[in-house]
Amino acid sequence: MKHGIEVLRPVPTNGVQVALLDFDGTLSLIRQGWQEVMISFMTEVLAELNSGESPEELFKLIQGFVTDLTGKQTIYQMLRLAEEVKKRGGDPDDPVDYKRRYHDRLWEKIHNRVADLRSGRAEPEEWLVPGARELLSNLKRREVTMFLASGTDTQYVIDEAGLLGLLPFFEDRVYGAIDDYKSFSKRLLIRKIIEDEKLEGPGFVAFGDGYVEVENTKEVGGTAVGVATDEERREGVDEWKRQRLIDSGADIIVGDFRCQEKLVSYLFGENDLSGK
Prior knowledge:
This protein is α/β, with parallel strands linked by helices. Helix content is 47%, strand content 12%. α1 packs antiparallel against α4 (95-119) and α9 packs parallel to α10 (239-248). The chain starts with a strand and ends in a 9-residue tail after the last helix.
């Protein structure tokens, strides 16, 4: 990994016009630990059905589908939970109710983080992926139009991005989960961006820690930067995330954005990190 950047395949380096950035785990660490909360909640729901499965078996099952659906709207994980309840002879709650209960659990974990940011007791940099603000500033200086997209509900994304001081980079181009979940997805947003901005694929880059934005970006011929952040240590690379992103087709892997200056220069053809 040269300069903290792993180039898996050379990418077009004639400049970037539009960038899409995922939020949680890519820019923000406010919700760090959300997967553990979700898996714990779902394990409890399924364990109540007394299906004969051990806690370890349930954990492995749930971890698998939560991870597979990471990057999509949260409701999709809750729809899958409802399916698993039904498979075991249970009467599932409305997935929207499951989602509310999960959010209540997650809020218990993160409400102090949000309160500290809101009051000024914590600085935004404490809950940003290292180098994230510098990345956005660099892209803005180069007049790249930036979109923020998340599987988290829109109102939370706007609030938390505001607390981190990121909204000026995106203006009104912030997209998150909505109640009519079938009418929004990262795939639909990316295709709309390509059409509205009259882009060719090489002018589009996405940064994300989930397979969804990587696969959707490759479908339109864009460049996918996989962000394999170790959210607990806040340095280095999460090897599991890295492999998942590679398998999804990422062109470039970074652990965080301390390398952003060289990364952006590479995307604009100003240096060569490919080793060619």
